[in-house]
Design a protein that fits this description.
Radius of gyration of chain A: 19 Å
Shape of chain B: globular
Number of helices of chain B: 2
Strand order of the largest sheet of chain A: 2-3-1-4
CATH topology of chain B: Peptide Deformylase
Helix content of chain B: 10-25%
Oligomer: heterodimer
Largest interface: A-B, 20 and 27 residues
CATH architecture of chain B: Alpha-Beta Complex
Order of helices and strands of chain A: EHEEHEEHEEHEE
Strand content of chain A: 35-45%
Number of helices of chain A: 4
Number of domains of chain A: 2
Number of strands of chain A: 9
Structural class of chain A: alpha+beta
CATH superfamily of chain B: Peptide deformylase
Helix content of chain A: 25-40%
CATH class of the largest domain in chain A: Alpha Beta
Number of domains of chain B: 1
CATH class of chain B: Alpha Beta
Largest sheet of chain B: 6 strands, antiparallel
Number of strands of chain B: 6
Largest sheet of chain A: 4 strands, antiparallel
CATH topology of the largest domain in chain A: Alpha-Beta Plaits
Shape of chain A: globular
Radius of gyration of chain B: 15 Å
Distance between the termini of chain A: 31 Å
Distance between the termini of chain B: 36 Å
Chain lengths: 171, 180
């Protein structure tokens, strides 16, 4: 346990990045907790939450990655951020012709309804723009109203959007 | 719907056991076949039923989830909205999946992994064989939809597998939402 901090690693993709970063953290006694990594238009992009080592020492240790085109940041995290997630899960899917403002328009409506986006992927494929977001809605949210607002917002930026419940089967 | 559960007084006398959570090693253990007619198998079946009955939202439990590495599970999906075919409340000993077709994707949670959920593709039509505790009668179940998914989830437990072993891709693992 101990103080949590976030590390981001972004830049030129190549084999071995994760092994190098986690090897460095292990050498420092760091403990890797949650992390999420993907390629964004071919660029390596990883965010990690780490405990058990010193943020400044970690930043120094990771700095040589710049030589291979990887930029790292190390950011202390407040303890209070570990709040439990609550709400009802929905998946928002949006797709249509690419243009500025699609994500802003749709997520503005979700935020106004008290919805918290807990997972988000956007992809641009040719002219097609796709957004898939998992949204935690307050239990008291008016889902039918939100669906109409999402539909109107989507129409205003020329895309289609659907909101569907993501229920978990407890087995 | 004919019940698969024999009318045995012992099956109503189970005690509620603690449900173990990952990373407990018994959840990663391939369980062993047991004799369905032995009194300890009937006792285990009764304990599984009793523990399932007091666990909110629980529709199935494998024996290793209560710490016993034996190939026994209980199930009852009769009240679940996604259920089509079902066989009521039952216990199956030494179950074997003999046919499985038509994969469908759904998000699963598990009492032994309470903080995570995962998207898992599983066949939606299955045929399963096994033995009834007490009588030792061999039975064959043909089922679909939610009961098919639940049976496969429990048989996975008996193979030492969790749903996290089956999530469809690296971004299909999620924090479980709490419903306040």
């Amino acid at each position: 346990m101990g103080t949590s901090f976030a590390i981001t690693v972004v830049g030129h993709d190549r084999p071995g990045i994760i092994a190098e970063v986690t090897g460095a953290l292990a050498d420092l006694g760091g403990n890797l907790e949650d992390s999420s990594m993907t390629l964004l238009r071919g660029h390596f992009a990883w965010t990690l939450v780490v405990t058990g080592t010193d943020p400044a020492v970690t930043q120094e240790r990771l700095r040589p990655l710049q030589d291979s085109g990887l930029w790292t940041t190390v950011i202390p995290l407040p303890e209070s951020d570990a709040a439990p997630r609550s709400g009802v899960s929905y998946v928002l899917s949006v797709h249509g012709g690419d243009r500025p403002g699609i994500v802003a328009k749709l997520t503005e409506v979700v935020a106004a309804a008290g919805g918290n986006i807990v997972d988000l992927t956007t992809r641009l494929a040719g002219d097609l723009y796709v957004l898939v977001a998992e949204v935690a809605l307050p239990v008291e949210a008016d889902v039918a109203l939100l669906e109409r607002q999402i539909s109107a917002a989507a129409t205003s930026v020329g895309v289609g959007a659907t909101l569907r419940p993501e229920d978990t089967d407890l087995l | 719907m004919t019940s698969l559960l024999p009318d045995l007084a012992e099956l109503a006398l189970g005690r509620v056991r603690d449900v173990v959570r990952a990373p407990h090693p018994v959840l990663s253990t391939a369980c062993a076949d047991v004799d369905p007619t032995l009194p300890e198998t009937v006792t285990l079946a009764a304990d599984l039923l009793a523990t399932m009955a007091v666990s909110p939202g629980c529709v199935g439990l494998a024996a290793n989830q209560i710490g016993v590495p034996a190939r026994v599970f209980c199930l009852d999906v009769s009240a679940h909205p996604k259920t089509r075919t079902h066989h009521g409340r039952f216990v199956l000993v030494n179950p074997v999946l003999v046919e499985a077709t038509r994969k469908e994707r759904a998000r699963e949670g598990c009492m032994s992994v309470p903080d995570l959920t995962g998207d898992v593709r599983r066949p939606s039509r299955v045929v399963v064989t096994g033995f009834v505790p007490g009588t030792g009668a061999e039975v064959t179940l043909t089922t679909d939809a939610f009961e098919a998914r639940a049976i496969q989830h429990e048989i996975d437990h008996l193979h030492g597998l969790l749903f996290v072993d089956r999530v469809v891709d690296a971004h299909a693992l999620h924090q479980r939402q709490t419903y306040l």
